[in-house]
Design goal:
Elements: H1 22-38, H2 41-50, H3 55-69, H4 72-81, H5 90-109, E1 117-120, E2 123-129, H6 134-168, H7 177-200, H8 216-236, H9 249-263, H10 266-283, H11 288-296, H12 301-326, H13 331-354, H14 361-389, H15 395-422, H16 429-434, H17 437-455, H18 457-464, H19 469-478, H20 496-503, H21 505-511, E3 517-521, E4 524-528, H22 531-545, E5 560-563, E6 566-569
Antiparallel strand pairs: 1-2, 3-4, 5-6
Helix pairs in contact: 1-6, 1-7, 1-8, 3-6, 4-6, 4-15, 5-6, 5-8, 6-7, 6-14, 6-15, 7-12, 10-14, 10-15, 10-18, 12-14, 13-14, 13-17, 13-18
């Protein structure tokens, strides 16, 4: 019974076997690199602190990297449609890792750049410029890291598409285990990044608090080792069952036609609108929160690093709790509780700090550590919905589209938050230095207004998010609640046969192009010919059927073979 509730065939993956655990290793290694590069941990430490690039130069470098990362939408189409050695995911994972490996080898081979300011022992002498040509020094690294980011985006899309494929093979009662495991593995990778950055790249060259640090070359050697492990885990510890035939222009045309049908479906449109609108509303923050953190709570670099470390631990804990206890809980209920919890907890800590009841970096940082628990639940929940709404053969493009939509929400939310904050003039240091009662109320009201907007996400959750997996799959099957042409669906409907005759003509005409004789009776179809022609007819039938609302029921499919001039049924 459990097997019949899976969305795809193949059975659940056992992640405790060496040959199938590679996808988790890959997500762990990708978590390390994503937080080093995409998470800007190293980007900020190297370009802003080590080389001291100007603000516009640093932002330009970030923009180049972000643009290449945004190509995940394109890579999703490529991995879905162009198999390599009859596989759609593993070869692209290997290509991405190898590309990153080459880029990091290039970085490690460069001469170690000098710091912009002179480092003397454990201190930086900002009065002596040690590297006036810092921009020229930075350019090769920017190009190489941008290239690595592009290649790692390919590996990331392929691995996430494979995670969705694995997720679709799980029975409904436990579906979501794969996305939970993958998200946890990636978060553990990011946790390792925080440790490395916080303790080994927090020395004088990076304007840190320790006297020890690793060199830039040693850092890139570390990344080289991670890429090698990524190649090995993708090559020898990952399994995949290909679902596409050999690439051709006709196949690409059919894919894009089916893809348009898929993305224009009601549930996928609702999901993308939900991601776009909800995350904009949820991420709107007053610019005063940054100043409250630094000026009034006095959160320094080390306290911030330790906060990120413990926050990532609670993030993983939230993911574990979702997998263990909430995997079949209503998505709406979880988001209602999570949304309200995050808003009120953050407002509690902000209020106490603003009005000077308690101003301590350790007290203020507790807010992030507590709130990362529901963030862990949100991360896995959204990934699970993405896996549920994804159609078979479109895992890569569905995930790429989700990432593209999600990536667009952060800058929009930032702009809206700044517009709200501008009305209260809470971005300048004068308010926080003066620290009068009117200044505190201005800061509080700007933050409170943003929290009220965050709570309006309840409306988006209610109208755009289904309750759970079963309801979503029923909606996907029923579309806009029209009568399906799926076999047995119209049983008991007296006019079903009369409607089937004209509605099946386009599908029948498309199949006539094949070298296989076919016979139809209402919704029953038969293909007659040699095995090769019948197989080609059946494969094309499966591919084209969904476009016309025809879904075969495999339990009613039979094959007749003529052996020794007699017919035998198998």
């Amino acid at each position: 019974m459990a097997e019949t509730t899976a969305l795809d065939e193949g059975g659940q993956i056992n992640y405790f076997r060496l040959k199938t655990a590679g996808i988790l290793y890959n997500k762990f290694f990708q978590g390390i690199l994503m937080d080093f590069v995409w998470g800007r941990a190293f980007i900020y430490a190297f370009f802003q602190l080590y080389l001291n690039l100007d603000g516009h130069q640093y932002n330009s470098a970030i923009s180049v990297i972000q643009i290449l990362w945004a190509l995940k939408f394109v890579w999703g189409i490529v991995t879905d449609t162009i198999p390599i050695f009859k596989k759609r995911r593993i070869p692209y994972m290997v290509i991405g890792w190898v590309g990153g490996l080459i880029a990091f080898i290039f970085c490690a081979s460069l001469e170690i750049p000098k710091t912009y300011y002179l480092v003397e022992g454990c201190h930086v002498n900002t009065s002596v410029v040690n590297n006036p040509s810092n921009v020229k020094t930075a350019l090769p690294y920017i190009y190489a890291i941008a290239t690595a980011t592009c290649m790692l985006a390919i590996a990331d899309v392929a691995s996430d598409a494979l995670v969705i494929e694995y997720n679709r093979r799980e029975p409904m009662n436990i579906r979501g285990q794969t996305t939970s495991f993958a998200a946890m593995a990636e978060s553990f990778g990011r946790l390792l990044t925080i440790v490395v950055i916080g303790f080994f790249m927090n020395g004088p060259s990076f304007d840190g608090i320790f006297c020890w640090e690793i060199s830039v070359s040693q850092y890139f050697i570390f990344l080289i080792c991670i890429c090698v492990l990524g190649v090995l885990s993708a090559s020898f510890a990952t399994t995949e069952h290909s679902k596409v035939k050999k690439f051709s222009l006709s196949f690409l045309k059919m894919y894009m036609k089916e893809f348009w049908t898929t993305i224009s479906g009601k549930e996928l449109v609702k999901f993308n609108i939900f991601i776009f609108v909800y995350f904009i509303i949820f991420d709107i923050k007053s610019s005063a929160t940054v100043k409250v953190k630094s000026k009034w709570a006095h959160v320094g670099p080390f306290a911030n690093t330790m906060t990120n470390l413990f926050a990532k631990l609670t993030l993983v804990l939230g993911m574990y709790f979702y997998r263990k206890y909430f995997i079949n809980t209503s998505w709406r209920k979880l988001l209602y509780i999570m949304n309200a919890f995050v808003v009120f907890v953050s407002l509690f800590f902000d209020t106490i700090t603003i009005f000077d009841w308690i101003r301590s970096p350790y007290f203020y940082c507790a807010e992030a550590i507590i709130n990362y628990f529901p963030f862990g639940i949100l991360t896995v929940l959204v990934m699970q919905v993405c896996g549920e709404v994804s159609a078979s053969k479109f895992e890569g493009i569905t995930f790429g589209m989700y990432m593209a939509v999600w990536s667009a929400t952060s800058p929009i939310a930032l702009v809206l938050g700044n517009l709200i904050s501008a009305s209260f003039n809470v971005s300048t240091d004068e308010r926080y230095i003066r620290d009068s009662n009117s200044d505190r109320w201005a800061v509080f009201i700007s933050i409170l207004l943003c929290k009220i907007i965050n709570l309006s996400g309840f409306v988006i959750i209610y109208f755009l998010l289904t309750t759970q997996k079963k309801e979503l799959q029923e909606n996907l099957k029923l579309g806009d609640r029209e009568l399906l042409s799926k076999e047995e669906a119209p049983q008991g409907f007296n006019l079903a046969t009369d409607f089937y005759a004209p509605s099946m003509l386009p599908l029948i005409n498309d199949l006539k192009k094949l070298q296989c004789h076919q016979e139809w009776n209402a919704d029953d179809a038969s293909g007659i010919g040699n095995l090769q022609s019948v197989k080609e007819w059946w494969d094309t039938f499966n591919d084209l059927g969904r476009n016309y609302g025809y879904f075969q029921m495999l339990k009613n499919v039979g094959l007749l073979l003529r052996i020794n001039q007699t017919f035998k049924e198998h």
